[in-house]
Q: What sequence folds into this?
């Protein structure tokens, strides 16, 4: 280690500290300073850390957060994230972290600095959920920096995170309400509503279904790209979902009405037979789904929320939280947190098989003369997608 007087590229005089990470023959490192006092202080700190065996920490901590994220974290850790998660993280970092903390050195990111950043972002009007997620991401980044020896501790772990807003309790639609909604929809939309409400698929999963994915007793659900609607814990692999008999009948009727398409064809093709985009999905939701809600007199809900109806049907059967979680494609803790109030409500209720509950709702609809969604006289509104 040494401090040398050097002529910098802009013609000014500066000071450079040179050192080796290991013994003779190891790579030579250097760092330049404008003032000799700063270079000497850095050299002294390197000597002290070498005596303590901790040179990597003081060197690595001189990188700014932006430098570490762009040059190290993004190249070695971000690439392991799912594409949608990586996009979300990039957006949060660019919006909430880089403009405020990005130019700080890793060593300067103390718990107090991070806590002040959190308070200032909230005071500026940033959402509590967004800041909570951002701080979790920052903690993950700094954890990797700590594990690589760039910092001696993870300061984000010492910051008390803002509490996220309490989630609204989910209100699953009863089968009778689902059937009322299907009754005012066109044949394709009625079948799609059945898939959402009676198999628990997310909209992007339902729209990615192929006829070959429909088996005798199960649906094969592949991971699908996001359509921009709300989501929960991501599905990281394919799963199979129980195929209720009424839903199997609905899908068979829709296949016959569609001209018996081939197995590799999409069950619900997008406009002009193309894949669904976020725009086409948003158009379908606004023109078809929301209009069906209004015609059926159903309180506002979303296509995604229909999966809560499937969860409720399974819980009404007496199925375990683990079983329901596996069917929905997320973990048991999330299931318990989301449907805990439903479980409490059904605790003393008689167990009713899901298929019986659906058939009873359809029997009631027929008894009062509500037409079937497959009625050829019903105006088709599929073109609205």
A:
């Amino acid at each position: 280690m040494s401090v040398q007087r050097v002529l910098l590229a802009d013609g000014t005089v500066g000071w450079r500290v040179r050192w080796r990470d290991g013994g003779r023959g190891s790579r030579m490192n250097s760092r330049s300073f404008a003032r000799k006092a700063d270079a000497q202080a850095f050299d002294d700190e390197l000597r002290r850390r070498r005596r303590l065996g901790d040179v990597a920490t003081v060197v690595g901590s001189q990188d700014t957060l932006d430098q570490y994220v762009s040059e190290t974290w993004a190249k070695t850790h971000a690439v392991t994230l799912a594409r949608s998660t990586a996009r979300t993280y990039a957006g949060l970092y660019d919006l909430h972290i880089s403009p405020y903390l990005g130019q700080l050195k890793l060593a300067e990111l103390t718990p107090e600095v991070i806590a002040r950043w959190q308070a200032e972002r909230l005071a500026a009007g940033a959402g509590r959920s967004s800041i909570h997620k951002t701080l979790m991401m920052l903690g993950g980044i700094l954890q990797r920096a700590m594990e690589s020896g760039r910092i001696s501790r993870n300061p984000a772990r010492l910051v008390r995170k803002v509490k996220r807003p309490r989630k609204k309790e989910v209100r699953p639609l009863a089968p009778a309400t689902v059937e009322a909604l299907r009754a005012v929809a066109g044949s394709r939309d009625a079948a799609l509503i059945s898939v959402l409400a009676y198999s628990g698929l997310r909209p992007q999963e339902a729209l990615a279904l192929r006829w070959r994915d429909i088996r005798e007793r199960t649906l094969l659900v592949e991971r699908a790209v996001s359509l921009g609607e709300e989501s929960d814990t991501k599905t990281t692999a394919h799963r199979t979902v129980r195929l209720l008999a009424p839903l199997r009948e609905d899908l068979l009727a829709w296949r016959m009405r569609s001209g018996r398409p081939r197995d590799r064809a999409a069950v619900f093709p997008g406009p002009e037979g193309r894949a669904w985009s976020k725009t086409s999905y948003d158009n379908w939701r606004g023109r078809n789904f929301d209009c069906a809600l209004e015609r059926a007199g159903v309180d506002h809900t979303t296509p995604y929320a229909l999966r809560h109806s499937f969860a409720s049907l399974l819980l009404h059967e007496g199925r375990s939280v683990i079983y329901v979680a596996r069917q929905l494609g997320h973990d048991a803790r999330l299931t318990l947190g989301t449907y805990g109030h439903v479980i409490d409500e059904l605790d003393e209720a008689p167990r009713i098989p899901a298929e019986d509950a659906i058939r009873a709702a359809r029997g009631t609809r027929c008894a009062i003369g509500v037409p079937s969604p497959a009625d050829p006289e019903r105006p088709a509104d599929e073109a609205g997608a």
Remarks:
- The longest strand covers residues 13-20.
- Residues 374-384 have pLDDT under 50 and may be disordered.
